[in-house]
Amino acid sequence: xxxxxxxxxxxxxxxxxxxxxxxxxxxxxxxxxxxxxxxxxxxxxxxxxxxxxxxxxxxxxxxxxxxxxxxxxxxxxxxxxxxxxxxxxxxxxxxxxxxxxxxxxxxxxxxxxxxxxxxxxxxxxxxxxxxxxxxxxxxxxxxxxxxxxxxxxxxxxxxxxxxxxxxxxxxxxxxxxxxxxxxxxxxxxxxxxxxxxxxxxxxxxxxxx
Length: 209
What we know:
Elements: E1 2-6, E2 9-18, E3 29-39, H1 47-50, H2 55-85, H3 88-105, H4 116-122, H5 142-158, H6 174-187, H7 194-200
Antiparallel strand pairs: 1-2, 2-3
């Protein structure tokens, strides 16, 4: 018996040798007789097919088809169980998606509270191994902090975070009062302003006259 595989099906054939001269033939040749087919991943011989096979043929099919199919199915189940229990590939996939979200957020901002639950979930991860001490962070550049805060404030105002000024009396609003304080702190009209601090350290020249 031999097997021919096409697609996911195994087809079984019996071979019979016809000797020279036994049927008026000038030379010997093999005759193949189709017996039946079965899925190549079958873990057992289908009943209808088994009834057509001799004991030796059934053993042949068990060794060549059914045994390897059962082993492959067992390995697949073990791999599926291992993957189901493994948190690391999920973290790798999550990082990939977060990196994609970060890149896209440069064009379309996201609400702050939309990712807070992700941070909360990560804080509950059960981890092992010593955590390397974090390097001492360098003091933040105060001018960079101020610039970032100003840009964030400008974006928030443009997006409507404080609404719009009334048609009259805009200078009586809290927004105008705060802006006046900010301007004074920056341009030097307030005591101990940022401008005067930079001038005292020689970064900015004082105006003459």
